[in-house]
């Protein structure tokens, strides 16, 4: 770890996929996270390490620390759609309306990215802009119908808009046996609320 390469944005995105797989592993050592944090203190210009740190903090649910790390990355890479998207995700989870601004900025940089469209739609729905949010969520679903997260967000938005039959249909698809995703418990709760 102590030989983190000095790289720029393209390499950061490649490293992100690999490190996310590590964070998802149940045996990810806390000592390694502490080492990453120390590395970032000792090497404040290492953008790759800060990305690893920010993503790790987000996955661990340490939202305030994740946000600080993403904000620092955004200062260095103000046009990085992935950083903006992840910052929007943190803001959504914090209940901060700034999530919409971050997500809109990310969307302008990556108009066809399903994950970014999902974040924008989800931020809008969570802030009460149901019709506009549902529109982005439908677009995200068209681009990636296999994503249970996108479909849950769409189902939630549809339910909030009183379109219960459509919401139930989305939930039925994503709650099939064997499908696992971060918000599965919320999706099951929504399904129980909507009924058969």
The coarse silhouette is globular
**Rg, nearest Å:** 18 Å
H/E series:
HHHHHHHHHHH
How far apart, in Å, are the first and last alpha carbons? Answer: 51 Å
Question: Which stretches are low in confidence, meaning pLDDT under 50 for 5 or more residues running?
Answer: 1-14
Kindly estimate the percentage of residues that lie in beta strands according to DSSP.
under 5%
Using DSSP, what is the number of strands? Answer: 0
Work out the helix count: 11
User: How much helical structure, as a percent, in the residues?
Assistant: over 70%
What is the average per-residue confidence, as pLDDT, rounded to a whole number?
85
Structure classification: mainly alpha
Tell me the major beta sheet: none
Any overview of this molecule?
The chain is mostly helical. It is 73% helix and 0% strand. The protein has eleven helices and no strands. The protein has helices spanning 9-24, 30-42, 47-59, 63-76, 81-94, 98-109, 114-126, 130-143, 148-160, 164-174, 184-194. Helix 7 packs antiparallel against helix 8 (130-143). The longest helix is centred in the first third of the chain and has 16 residues, at 9-24. The radius of gyration is 18 Å and the shape is globular. The termini are far apart.
